[in-house]
Amino acid sequence: MPRKFTPYLFVLPLIAFIVVFTYIPILTSLNLSVREWDFLSPDKPFVGFENYRLLLDSHEFWNSLRVTAIFAFVSVPIRLVLALLIASFLVRETLSARILRGALFLPFVTSTVSIAVIFSWVFSTDYGMANALLRAIGGEKVPWLQDPAIALWVLILVNTWKQLGYDVIIYIAGLQAISNELYDAAAVDGGGRLHVFRRVTVPLVMPTTYFLLVISVIEAFQIFTIVNVMTHGGPAGATDMLVNMLYRTGFTLFDIGKGSALAVLLFAILITLAWIKARVIGRKVHYEA
Amino acid sequence: MTPKLRTALALSLSTLCATTASAQAEVTVQFWHSFSKGNEKALEQIITNFEAANPDIKIDADFIGNYNDIVTKLQAAIPANRAPDAVIMEVTRYGLFADRGVLADLTGYLDADPLKEQLFDFARKVGVYNGKNYIIPFNSSTPVLYYNKDILTRAGFTEEPALKTYDDVLKVARQITEKLGSEGISGVAAPGQFARWGLVMDNDSNLIDPDSNEVLLDAPNTIEAYQWMASLVHEHKVASPDGVTEEDNGRDAFWAGKVGIMFNSTGNYTQSRKALGDKLAVRPMPCNKVCSVPIGGAGIGILSSAKQEVKDAAYKFISFAASAESNAIWFAGTGYMPINKGAARQPAAAEALKTQPGIDVAIEQLEFAHGRPRPPVVTWMRSSEYDQWQAMALGQRDVAETLKAFATSTRNESQRLSN
């Protein structure tokens, strides 16, 4: 075999893996999205863009898109701001900082299902700890997971608590890459702490912010486990995120064609968002000090 | 090689060959079920007895989740060629699978089996879809009314109150909530889906007409029944909303002594008794306009994709599980109704009837128990009903409007599935 093929042989297993587990499923979804199928029938008749039309005409889809967008655009900024602030305090290599980093990272490596089940108990209206605390201080019980105006915020809180540790660790890595000379120079120039943070830290940590932004938005649009365990998309669709709707449509309502069409739309939405982020924010990111 | 070593090697080889031969002769039936906690123990006992009587058949039983989980996982497993050989299917949800040819027609097996004559009529009928048998009954149930005697006494009921109509239940639930609400005790658990169907039938209606398969979700009596059920949560506040968003919460709270009344399947009898002991009372469902309860539970079906020898072995197991002896073990261990006419004469069942007060209530209800329709759309309707119920019970949507819209979408879906 000619030596020029040797490098390709080294990457062949990875390429095969990606083809089998990424590209073939994407193409299969595209194919199923233009067919009518319930998983059980041997036939999958071609229906053109009917599944897309039904989705775009449905109140459910637009509600899910709205709820997911609110979730993403509220939770991601909160996570990033909090993470950067916490990382700024924990960047020092002290024992307490290391212990706190570990504590913050713990929820990220804990099973999401376990977290969701435990928080379901915490926010249970009649039997939960949150309302027990409220009542102990003289407050009224709150229907955390039954009130459409509150349930989404509870999910944002739980998801932020779970993901924050990851964001903090990534930010700490980004902050540690900033040269101390820049801080020294800023100090010599008489910059205050806030001024240095705004003028030195924030711009230089921009590549990390951009990376976390891209990852967090994708993660927010794909959130499923917490929703499925804590609210099943309820009450009255108030937390019915896109992936939850996709699961329900495909796997509990037997409409795999419409479920696949929704998956394709979600893919298109994420690609569009990534493109917008690259155009709007990506240009402002500088990878060298 | 020493003679001792040679003998040891020869013995090892012969043992290995014998083991391999026996393993090859064994037929394994992969069986998916939905029984956990105490009910799983009773099932394990039946499987152990079966394997002892049939050493050439192994039952590989897996707990998959509740009935909804089984439907979801089965549907994903079929195209992946990873479906089991036998599966528990809820009585209203198997129609779609029978309709699509996923379940094997068991009519020939049952016709040749003396079991057919031993089954109660109601039990035999639950396995019939379009004139053919697709499942053999295993765990049949009706909803019943459970209450906690201690809670009622503490709420001021010196004698057992009437619990025959919606008004009776509401009155008792109100008094419990008023007297004991400060201790975190609710009057009644928000009814789960099986109980909701039962309460609609008590109000002289149904969700789907059993004869014509016509959708009755928007029938006046169905709407009235849902209005009453929803009012328990958002208007009268005698049922916790926690049991609306997660149906098991209501049952768990009843077991924890935090709820006075619960409508639930007789399949929860044993666990309820374990949790509450002598405080537990079991009564028939209310008869608001008529006395009528749905027959629920599930039966075991065999997948068409299983090999013939596996199908034969699976049927042998299914028939054994529905036999008088096994059914008595199941009845005594779980509270599910006897399906075999001979079960009550078995020592295990006779002992249960004597020592477990209330276990016979579901049997007494049989005179007004009715099978439910199972056209393919029922699976979709039941999966979708949870969201509708949440919206109504939490007071977010008007009951009549919601049910009218739901009826329309169910009719549309029925049309889609029949195309």
UniProtKB/TrEMBL annotation, chain A:
Per the record, membrane topology reads: Multi-pass membrane protein
Task: Determine if Magnesium is one of this entry's keywords.
Answer: no
Instruction: Outline the extent of the ABC transmembrane type-1 domain.
Output: 61-277
Spell out the subcellular localization from the entry. Answer: Cell membrane
Which CDD domains does the UniProt entry name for this protein?
TM_PBP2 (cd06261)
- Keyword Membrane in the entry? The reply is yes
One GO CC term on file: plasma membrane
Which positions, given as ranges, span the membrane? 7-26, 69-91, 103-123, 143-161, 208-231, 251-276
Q: Name one GO biological process term.
A: transmembrane transport
Source taxon at top rank: Bacteria
What are the alphabetically sorted keywords of the record?
Cell membrane, Membrane, Transmembrane, Transmembrane helix, Transport
Q: Which Gene3D superfamilies match?
A: MetI-like
Family assignment from sequence similarity: Belongs to the binding-protein-dependent transport system permease family.
Q: What is this protein called?
A: ABC transporter membrane spanning protein (Glycerol-3-phosphate)
Taxonomy of origin reads: Bacteria, Pseudomonadati, Pseudomonadota, Alphaproteobacteria, Hyphomicrobiales
From TrEMBL, chain B:
From the UniProt annotation, give the residues forming the signal peptide.
1-23
> Per the UniProt entry, what species is this protein from, by scientific name?
Nitratireductor indicus C115
The identity of this protein, by name, is ABC transporter substrate binding protein (Glycerol-3-phosphate)
Keyword entries, A-Z: Periplasm, Signal
Enumerate the subcellular locations listed in this protein's record, separating them with semicolons. Periplasm
Similarity comment text for this entry: Belongs to the bacterial solute-binding protein 1 family.
Asked if the record carries the keyword Signal, the reply is yes
Give the chief site where it resides: periplasm
Lineage summary: Bacteria, Pseudomonadati, Pseudomonadota, Alphaproteobacteria, Hyphomicrobiales
The terms describing its cellular component in GO are: periplasmic space
User: Which InterPro entries does this entry report, sorted A to Z?
Assistant: Bact_solute-bd_prot1, SBP
Q: Does the keyword Signal apply?
A: yes
